[in-house]
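In this section we walk through a basic example: taking a raw amino acid sequence and producing a predicted 3D structure, encoded as discrete structure tokens. The instruction is simple. Fold the sequence below.
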Amino acid sequence: MQKRIVVMGTGALGGYVGGYLAQHGHDVTLIDMWPENIEAIRARGLELDGVTPEEKFTVRNAKTLHFSEVSSLKGQKPVDIAFISVKSYDTERVAKAIQPYLAPDGYCVSLQNCMNEETIVSVVGPGRTLGVIASIISVELYEAGRIRRMAAKGGDRHTVFRIGEIDGSLTLRVTELVSLFSLIDSTKPTTNLFGERWTKLVQNGMRNGIAAATGVTSGECDRNDVLRRFAIQLGGEAVRVGQALGYRLEKLGELEPERLALASEGDAKALSEIEEIMMKRTASNPRAGIQRPSMAQDMAKGRRTEIEFMNGLIAEKGRQVGVPTPSHVKLVDIVLRVERGELRPSPANFNF
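The resulting token sequence is shown next.
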């Protein structure tokens, strides 16, 4: 029997994943808090785009619900897989909303930035919680019902989706999800969910907040000496916190975590290596000049950012394990001041 899938949060990543699964014939219901997004999908379908012509298509067979209509699931076929793809601050509320409609063997999957599995566990339990890390995917909801991918598909060069149980076991559920996500891009199971999750947090912590606080693109951040060096400082501090927490960190694209940490600590050779990789990556990305991380997109839309769940979490965990994170503390302060309107987004916010 075909599994019933719901996507709680049809923003950039949730809409992209849900759209692809629906396009491949799966029973998908898209649920979102932004009314205009759902109405646009109902009116003209969910429009997806990418960097090749084959990635441009319109999904017309997905069911849709406003978040306020979740109670209409009562009496319907139970939910087998619930992808939670909302901002971190909405995780608990959304998990509580979908929990009553899960099938007896149904489960929730965190398809998010930051570390949200623990929050989901507090609602549905550890036996009904999995995680998916989307690595170097760069998707943007640039208009209601319209999503574009700004980075090339990983294919055999880079595994985009990494899927695991919170206890590290390889289960039939993991195999099931790997099969689903392989319809979208390269996918693998992982026994190192939290190591993968922290690695993604390091990547996001290097870029999201800076882009949000400056208003510039990813490429402009990399080409700016001050911003690039600050990003390396953020990355190195986050690596050291992750190591102190006992996580087994993966490579960050082409960046080795230990080399990144050394670069942030004054190792001139490591710094040269890391900067060269960052500059080459920007030069090879044809969309680097328009690509903005999710937090920069939120800031531009006037939405609350995830800075406290991203760099704020890194700083808090650093305090707990005795690893200094002054760059993260500073970044959180700057982003919150921009959110409050005390500062305008500008690279000048990092002239200190």
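Looking at the output, two observations stand out. Residues 315 and 329 are 6 Å apart (CA to CA). The two ends are 60 Å apart (CA to CA). In the next section we compare this with other chains.
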